């Protein structure tokens, strides 16, 4: 099927330069959006019929629009990095495109071709490139591509009209307070995803399902929640929006295996590769809360970290639940810190990109 031709309509009222410079100097995650957005429309009989860049603004939506009722929605998170020479790059976009397709398949939405996905980022950067911050203090432009069922119909079936959009927000470090290890709340009364459910799809509903436990976590001084397997509440799965790694004292690393309920993090996959590159062993397997408790108490588990595009690699200082506190460390671990430096180094063009992960979006 042929892809639609791009049409670009520039904003007649863009953010003044001084104001934009002020925003990207100290960006707050998700608080400010750039001047434009991408909109691609899909219709059941015709496929992807249009691809446009338009001024940023609200979506006019009929109250009967399917997404508002049945949650047919998927999204991605991917960043644009400015390199020292001013050029703008992104990290492994084919992987995000493929994941968006898998999420679409699971949620009965149309699959956006990889080419259109990557071109949508290029098109947005072509008009909003000035929003990509200078490469200091981990500042980037965060893209939020998403797809929604956009048919005005209350009947329950897969929508016959869908929209893919991309918005973008300049961001600084996800967790304020530097590389300080975070506290994680263990959800004992709620699960995020069940067998054959939607855990592997990047869909809003998984996040909605995590927010009650997250609120409980906040009340207990934790910034994130860790979910256990829904069936037996025995094995560790992941955080609400990040994957987990456990570093053992002897140097080997364990991360929960992808069995359908865990999101296939691209950072997770990259970290597995970087650890193997160092000649260390990575085990992708089930890991129980009991094993983690015993490992932390004996000192066998030396470091724990979480990872995802938004927060890169973040050290975990402790796990807490209403029953216990498991303290790991108040300082970021050695491997955690060096993996973080290596990964951000690759992303900002300061460390050799051995695996050809970086893709240029603009000169
Ligand atoms: C997006 C996401 C991640 C991290 O994936 P990355 O591709 O590394 O950004 C992990 N877990 C969940 C539930 C997510 O939604």
From TrEMBL:
Keywords: Amino-acid biosynthesis, Aminotransferase, Branched-chain amino acid biosynthesis, Pyridoxal phosphate, Transferase. It comes from the Bacteria. Its cofactor is pyridoxal 5'-phosphate. The modification N6-(pyridoxal phosphate)lysine is found at residue 202. It holds the Pfam family Aminotran_4. The keyword Transferase applies. Pathway: Amino-acid biosynthesis; L-leucine biosynthesis; L-leucine from 3-methyl-2-oxobutanoate: step 4/4; Amino-acid biosynthesis; L-valine biosynthesis; L-valine from pyruvate: step 4/4; Amino-acid biosynthesis; L-isoleucine biosynthesis; L-isoleucine from 2-oxobutanoate: step 4/4. The keyword Transferase applies. It is an enzyme of class 2 (transferase). GO terms for biological process: isoleucine biosynthetic process; L-leucine biosynthetic process; L-valine biosynthetic process. It catalyses: L-valine + 2-oxoglutarate = 3-methyl-2-oxobutanoate + L-glutamate; L-isoleucine + 2-oxoglutarate = (S)-3-methyl-2-oxopentanoate + L-glutamate; L-leucine + 2-oxoglutarate = 4-methyl-2-oxopentanoate + L-glutamate. This is Branched-chain-amino-acid aminotransferase. It comes from Candidatus Rhodoluna planktonica. The lineage of its organism: Bacteria, Bacillati, Actinomycetota, Actinomycetes, Micrococcales.
């Amino acid at each position: 099927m042929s892809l639609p031709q791009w049409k670009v309509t520039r904003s007649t009222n863009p953010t003044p330069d001084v104001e934009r410079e002020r925003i990207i100097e100290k960006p707050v995650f998700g608080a400010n959006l750039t001047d434009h957005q991408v909109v691609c429309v899909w219709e059941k009989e015709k496929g992807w019929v249009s691809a446009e860049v338009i001024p940023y603004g609200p979506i006019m939506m009929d109250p009967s629009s399917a997404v508002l009722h049945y949650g047919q929605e998927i999204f991605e998170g991917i960043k644009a990095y400015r390199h020292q020479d001013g050029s703008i790059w992104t990290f492994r976009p084919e992987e995000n495109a493929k994941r968006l397709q898998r999420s679409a398949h699971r949620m009965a939405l149309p699959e956006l071709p990889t080419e259109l996905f990557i071109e949508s980022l290029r098109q947005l950067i072509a008009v909003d490139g000035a929003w990509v911050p200078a490469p200091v203090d981990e500042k980037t432009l965060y893209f939020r591509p998403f797809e929604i069922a956009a048919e005005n119909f209350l009947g329950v079936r897969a929508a016959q009209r869908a929209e893919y959009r991309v918005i973008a927000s300049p961001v600084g470090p996800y967790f304020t307070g530097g590389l300080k290890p975070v506290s994680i709340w263990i959800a004992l009364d709620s699960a995020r995803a069940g067998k054959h459910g939607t855990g592997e799809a990047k869909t809003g509903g998984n996040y909605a399902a995590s927010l009650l436990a997250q609120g409980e976590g906040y009340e207990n001084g934790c910034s994130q929640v860790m979910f256990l397997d829904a069936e037996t509440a025995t094995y560790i799965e992941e955080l609400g929006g990040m994957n987990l790694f456990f570093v053992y004292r002897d140097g080997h690393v364990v991360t929960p295996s992808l069995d359908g309920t865990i999101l296939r993090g691209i950072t997770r996959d990259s970290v597995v590769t970087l650890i193997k590159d160092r000649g260390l062993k990575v085990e992708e397997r089930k890991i129980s809360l009991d094993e983690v408790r015993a490992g932390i108490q004996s000192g066998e588990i030396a470091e724990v970290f979480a990872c995802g595009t938004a927060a890169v690699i973040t050290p975990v200082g402790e796990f807490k639940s209403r029953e216990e506190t498991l303290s790991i460390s108040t300082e970021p671990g050695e491997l955690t810190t060096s993996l973080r430096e290596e990964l951000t180094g690759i992303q900002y063009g300061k460390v050799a990109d051995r695996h050809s992960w970086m893709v240029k979006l603009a000169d």
